[in-house]
Specification:
The chain is an alpha+beta fold. The protein contains 4 helices and 4 strands. The chain has a 4-stranded antiparallel beta sheet. The longest helix has 11 residues. 12% of the residues are buried.
């Protein structure tokens, strides 16, 4: 029997804590890299980056066609290179995978 969650879309929400005075640099690095990812990463539907008003945190919400697509991305050279470029800007990155259970209309 196949695993149904392996074929459902997944959303990855990553919360980033920037090093002191590095949030804007992190946001710019993400802004420069993210637009090209959907074309280069199979199964990536898209991403949205949010910055908190505290000047320390950011959240990235990315949606993949399936958990398998997300796994392949995490193991890709493109992701490893991107993560290496961002590492000097961050204190911590906390990604977690979520499955949609409820959706309401947009305002």
């Amino acid at each position: 029997m196949s695993n149904p969650s392996a074929t459902r879309a997944v959303t990855v929400i990553s919360v980033f804590t920037a090093k002191a005075d590095r949030l804007e640099e992190f946001v710019e690095a993400q802004r420069a890299a993210l637009p090209g990812f959907p074309d280069r990463i199979p199964g990536l539907r898209g991403s949205r980056l949010y910055r908190s008003p505290d000047g320390i945190h950011a959240a990235l919400v990315s949606t993949f066609e399936s958990a398998e697509h997300h796994r392949r991305f995490r193991e890709s050279d493109a992701f490893a290179g991107h993560r290496a470029r961002l590492a000097p800007l961050l204190e911590r990155a906390e990604p977690a995978v979520y499955e949609l259970v409820y959706e309401s209309a947009s305002p």
